[in-house]
Design brief:
- By secondary structure, the protein is α+β, with helices and mostly antiparallel strands.
- Strands 2, 3, 4, 5, 13 and 14 form a 6-stranded antiparallel β-sheet that branches.
- β10 and β11 form a beta hairpin.
- The chain starts with 8 loop residues before the first strand and ends with a strand.
Length: 296
């Protein structure tokens, strides 16, 4: 039978899909750590960056941090009294929602709270975040926010113009032709304004980890901290189903962001050879612009 001549679409991304074996391995790691440590925390990470999170991992070398796939972490701990790994852990698993992870440690709770209350790192804001101050640039040379202020190099002028700034090169210096407002306080930053702020060395974001709740092996109960995090409500079988002809789906709203199987699922101290960027944010998504017929 002759081979088909239809074009076969291939992916140009180097990101490998997470397999069932990968998830099973993560389950085993989480369960082994949960059996070992007396305290398990839910931690919320603000402005997650691989370098900053790696620094925290190094400073908490004797502990374990898992961050990413909420459903896998919840399943590993047990979501009901019948399936929970240790008494009371299901109450912690039900609170896993949103962009949170778990910290497993032997450090007393007050020491954990004190440490994370003082640990933070300044970072460049990304598109979609809120501006923390007004940034209005006067007419004239574009200055970087350094001490003392410096002008941008000449080869940056075309990039600034591409980002929407009314600039031109005068005597080798990128110069604004008129006053330009980059952002206003409270305004949502666009990708362009966030990139301009980065060029100007203006950091509006902050990496911080907030402990929200912890489970204690001694008391077999969950204690909420820093405002806590609400437990997810379990829905009845008839709830949450779609009325269209699509497949029926039954899940909490908080879990919708966890449906993608390509999302990275862990950051663990034992996996030093893993790509750090894979452990922090969602995995690379394959878009139509990344697809080409085979043979090209």
């Amino acid at each position: 039978m002759p081979r088909t001549k239809r074009n076969k679409v291939i992916s140009l991304t180097k990101t490998t899909r997470k397999t069932r074996e990968h998830k099973t391995g993560l389950l085993d790691k989480v369960r082994a750590a949960a059996e070992e440590f007396p305290y398990i925390w839910i931690i919320q990470i603000q402005s997650d960056r691989a370098t900053f999170l790696h620094e925290v991992r190094e400073l908490w070398k004797g502990s374990k941090i898992f961050y990413g796939k909420i459903k896998v972490l919840s399943f590993a701990l047990g979501t009901s009294p019948e399936t929970e790994l240790r008494p009371g852990l299901s109450q912690l698993a039900k609170r896993l929602s949103g962009r949170v992870g778990i910290l497993l440690t032997a450090t007393p709770p007050q020491e954990v709270l004190d440490w994370f209350a003082t640990h933070s790192r300044k970072d460049y804001a990304r598109g979609g975040t809120k501006a923390t101050e007004d940034i209005v640039l006067p007419e004239g040379p574009v200055m970087i926010r350094t001490d003392p202020p410096e002008t941008l190099p000449h080869n940056m002028e075309t990039q600034l113009r591409a980002l929407g700034m009314p600039t031109e090169l005068k005597r080798g210096v990128p110069t604004l032709l008129r006053e330009y407002t980059v952002c206003k306080k409270g305004q949502t930053l666009t990708a362009e304004s966030a990139q301009i702020l980065k060029h100007l060395v203006i950091q509006m974001s902050e990496f911080r980890i907030t402990p929200l709740a912890y489970w204690s092996a001694e008391k077999s109960s969950v204690v909420e901290t820093n405002g806590g995090i609400k437990a997810r409500k379990e829905k009845s079988k008839g709830e949450g189903r779609k009325s269209s002809g699509a497949k029926d789906v039954d899940m909490d709203d908080n879990d919708k962001e966890d449906v993608d199987d390509d999302e990275d699922v862990e950051i663990d101290d034992d996996d030093e050879d893993d790509d750090e960027e894979d452990g922090v944010a969602a995995g690379d998504k394959v878009t139509s612009s990344m697809m080409l017929p085979a043979g090209i």
